[in-house]
Design brief:
The complex is a heterodimer of chains A (292) and B (434). Chain A has 292 residues and is mainly alpha-helical. Chain A is built from 13 helices and two strands; from the N terminus they run αββαααααααααααα. A two-stranded antiparallel ribbon of chain A has the order 1-2. In chain B, the strands form two sheets. In chain B, strands 1, 2, 3, 6, 7, 8, 9 and 10 form an eight-stranded mixed sheet that branches. The chains are: A mainly alpha (292), B alpha/beta (434).
């Protein structure tokens, strides 16, 4: 008993540095954000101008840019999730088929994930979506159509396209490994029982992928809520592409209002938590259902 | 003999180390414009003359602004010299964030700087940043297309002539747009253009009591005129075009006219980059007969943040980069057309420079811009394409985003103006002006 206790306290002691580091990592930025959110802090007017109560919070939420930014955030996150999960699953199934040059094809499919967001944003903007010199414009003109003005007329859609292109490899990769862990015998047995490919997919492959897909959704949501570079280099927040993250950036760096931006940061934390709790519920249920 | 040699080499080593100790390494933040890139290529000349080495941090305009603003407000000390403009200099100078440049050497000849430039880069009569180049805006147009349209560009045209000429020059089948103008969001991009244009329509940002004026007829006239002209004769996607986009369109021969920074003149007339170099004419930015033209005034200037350890070396660099001898160095290497324009009076008296086709129009444009009296009706702010108050950059970025959304057809001009009015009054109230 005694021995057991001491090993436990030793274990705690050994874990302490990691825990303290993690807490510091998380708590210090959070506390400073909270601290600044109650301050009137304007660097260009001399910095700290005293406490401000909830003024920053009301000002941020009543600004005409707030609700459109929430809308833009949800649209981008939601559409990218849907696109990457559907196409990720299809691509994974395709890549799972034995074919010539499989290794190279897989590397090519994964490649977009390694392109930096700013670079991919610029490449899409200048080489594909430019209404005069872009590849799409040439394609449209080849078919005798008026080229689309992607980034101004189809702005949110364009951002969704760019971000989906970047995150598709991630979804594909996770789902592909899940497919490869599927027992081949099950599929063969189903085939012998006369199940057609669609049925095999719906009853065997898809249920098997459930967990992988939930992981894709969870991880991607965390990263997608904070996408920034793609918007910064393409539309700079114009044409209704100002997400919550981008709005906070504008308040802090362009308006040089640290207090107001920090209040926005606190709202972003709340939004992320709401989304996370909602997703956890759904995911938790599906995982429980899987267990039973 | 041997000992002598030993002594000599010892002395040489000592001298070398002494030299290294006094030689500093300067970190300079600058913007990725053609003239600045050219300066980086000539850094060796500075190092050879003074022994100081230079490390460049070259950034795109918007990014540069954010980096240097953050650095100076947080006293980050990342840079020994910053490239800033006419908007930042008076505000930062007033806050005591910049080293005053009141003790530059006699050989530098401060009085040779164009008064419009040194005035805009001073606070209370003290110079805080030395102009690297100065610019206004003017019309650059294709002489061949103008002749083809059967029109003749006056030296000082009106907006109605420009709109008419733009419609005549437009040839959609051959991908020629009558006029290319900035529409990109950002206060220094489309925001700067539309503000300068609005001045000539009698509009202003604020009345004397700092009330936003976007509900005025003048602003509505400006935006509607711009939008109708650009819809009829502007390039596709003009709502996302800034300086660089329009420059490349003009160089590819896809624009009949372009109203933008005077420094662009050397790029569009350079046969290496421009397919239309031989057919470019220049004219003053248009007006509406109200006594104010639509050209702006700007300078990219070098300033030293207060608190740097390397003030002496930084001053040496500024004197080198903004001096007459630097201009001569560029002229010797790249020709007179490519020297940094608009900063010094003596450049425009130089016989070598007088032959440059755009020199006269650049000087006239700069001289016709008056930041103190930029609007038809009185206004409480200094600045032509901006109001020199700390809040302006943030407000104008938001406002120009609303305008760009209207250019793209996502909302009506009236809606954009109503939103701009609300945004501006909100922010001015928060800042305690109203």
């Amino acid at each position: 008993m005694n021995n057991h206790l001491s090993t436990r306290s030793i274990a705690r002691l050994m874990m302490a540095p990691a825990v303290i580091l993690l807490l510091g990592w998380m708590l210090i930025p959070l506390t400073t954000t909270l601290y600044f959110s109650f301050k009137k802090y304007l660097p260009l007017r001399g910095g700290d101008l005293g406490w401000n109560g909830f003024d920053n919070y009301t000002r941020f939420i009543t600004s005409s840019a707030f609700w459109p930014s929430i809308y833009a955030t949800l649209i981008v996150v939601g559409s990218v999730l849907i696109i990457t999960v559907i196409f990720g699953t299809l691509l994974a199934i395709l890549l799972d088929q034995p074919m010539w040059g499989q290794g190279i094809v897989r590397i090519l499919v994964i490649a977009p994930f390694f392109v930096m967001p700013t670079v991919s944003g610029l490449v899409w903007k200048n080489m594909f979506m430019d209404p005069i010199n872009g590849l799409f414009a040439h394609l449209w003109r080849f078919f005798g159509l008026q080229p689309l003005e992607w980034l101004s007329h189809f702005s949110l859609g364009s951002i969704v396209m760019i971000v989906s292109w970047q995150w598709l490899p991630f979804a594909t990769l996770i789902i592909l490994t899940a497919i490869q862990s599927l027992d081949r015998d099950q599929i063969e047995a189903a085939e012998m029982d006369g199940a057609n490919p669609i049925k095999r997919f719906g009853y065997i492959i898809l249920p098997h992928l459930y967990r992988a897909i939930t992981i894709v959704i969870l991880i991607q949501t965390i990263f997608l809520l904070s996408i920034f570079a793609e918007i910064f280099v393409t539309t700079a927040g114009a044409f209704g592409t100002k997400t919550l993250t981008y709005l906070i950036f504008q308040r802090v760096l362009e308006s040089q209002n640290v207090g107001l931006g920090s209040a926005g940061g606190v709202y972003a934390i709340i939004l992320a938590n709401i989304v996370a709790i909602f997703l956890m519920r759904v995911v938790g249920k599906s995982l429980d259902a899987k267990k039973n | 003999m041997r000992i002598n040699k030993l002594f000599l080499s010892l002395a040489a080593t000592l001298m070398l180390t002494a030299n290294i100790a006094s030689a500093e390494s300067l970190t300079i933040a600058t913007v990725n414009n053609g003239d600045m890139i050219r300066m980086q290529g000539l850094t060796d000349d500075f190092t050879a003359k003074t022994g100081h080495s230079v490390e460049w941090v070259t950034l795109e305009e918007n990014v540069l602004r954010q980096r240097v603003t953050t650095d100076i407000t947080t006293k980050g000390g990342a840079f020994d010299i910053m490239t800033i403009g006419m908007y930042e200099t008076p505000i930062w100078g007033a806050n005591g964030w910049l080293v005053p440049l009141d003790d530059l050497s006699a050989g530098y000849n401060v009085s040779d700087l164009l008064p419009a430039m040194s005035g805009g880069l001073s606070h209370d009569g003290t110079l805080y940043a030395a102009p690297f180049y100065g610019e206004s805006s003017m019309i650059m147009y294709r002489t061949d297309l103008m002749a083809k349209a059967g029109l003749e560009m006056p030296a000082a045209p009106s907006w109605s002539f420009i709109a008419k000429a733009a419609r005549h020059m437009t040839d959609r089948d051959n991908e020629i747009n009558g006029i290319c103008l900035r529409g990109k969001a950002g206060w220094g991009e489309g925001g700067a253009f539309i503000t300068a244009m609005s001045n000539s329509f009698g509009a202003r940002w604020f009345d004397e009591d700092w009330n936003a004026q976007f509900d005025s007829r003048e602003w509505s006239d400006t935006l509607n005129f711009y939008f109708n002209m650009m819809s009829d004769s502007g390039p596709a996607g003009f709502a996302t075009n800034g300086f660089n986009e329009n420059l490349s369109l003009f160089q590819q021969g896809k624009c009949g006219m372009w109203i933008d920074a005077t420094v662009a003149a050397s790029f569009v007339t350079n046969p290496k980059d421009s397919t239309v170099a031989d057919h470019v004419g220049f004219a003053l930015a248009p007006d509406n007969g109200m006594g104010v033209r639509s050209n702006w005034l700007w300078a990219w200037a070098l300033a030293i943040p207060a608190g740097t350890q390397k003030e002496g070396a930084a001053k040496e660099f500024i004197e080198w980069a903004t001096s007459n001898s630097y201009i001569e160095l560029v002229a010797a290497n790249e020709g007179w057309a490519n020297v940094p324009p608009g900063a010094r009076t003596s450049l425009y008296e130089n016989p070598n420079y007088k032959d440059i086709p755009f020199a006269k129009m650049t000087l006239e444009s700069i001289l016709s811009a008056d930041p103190l009296n930029s609007t038809v009706d009185p206004s409480p702010y200094v600045g032509i394409q901006f109001a020199a108050i700390p809040e302006f950059a943030g407000i104008a970025t938001d406002v120009s985003q609303e305008f760009s959304a209207a250019y793209a057809g996502q909302q009506s001009i009236a809606d954009a103006l109503a939103k701009a009015q609300a945004i501006t009054n909100d922010a001015m109230e928060a800042a305690g002006y109203r």
